[in-house]
Amino acid sequence: MKKWLQKGLVIAVALLTFGIITPNHEIWDGLDADKNKLRAHEPSSNDLSSAVQLDDIYIEEEIEVTESIKMAAREQAYIKFGTRIGPKITDEFDSRILPRIEEAIDMTIARLDDSTLKSLTISEKPSGNYSEKIFHIKNTHNNEDVIRFHVRTENRPGEGYYYNFHYHTKEDNFTGHNTLGDIYWSKNTPPKWLS
Fold this sequence. Notes:
Order of helices and strands: HHHHHEEEEE
Number of helices: 5
Strand content: 15-25%
Oligomer: single chain
Structural class: alpha+beta
């Protein structure tokens, strides 16, 4: 294996794990295809510990991606709420809706393969006025949405206005309406999003 690739992998591991896990230099023998062909042996305890370290790295990457998406999701929701809606619904959103959003993100990410997982990004422009979009999570390789999170303003006769939080997934071509929960506003017309 080329030296620059080895150095790049060492740096990547160090950055991704913040230096907690240092790469075991014995793994380079396993990565070099020519050396692998020349020697055939039973796995040693060093080989197994290297494999475990690599599995730990992949798990940590998945956790890191998931957590960064969850933090961005909360941030995008607060941006959408603006300064007029946010103060009134933030507490209820944090206690009831946000955990369900995080659960939906976890379930969606668990079904993705590694290459898709590494290419996920979250949209950064919630829609204003009375539009529904909070944020979408998409695959940057094919530029397709994986899951869409929305909030709809509903006027229920005799009750008043509610915010209906829900999401749509690619699995059913975004036709299914998966409800996360409702938050009551009041009998008065709510302000526009982002205001």
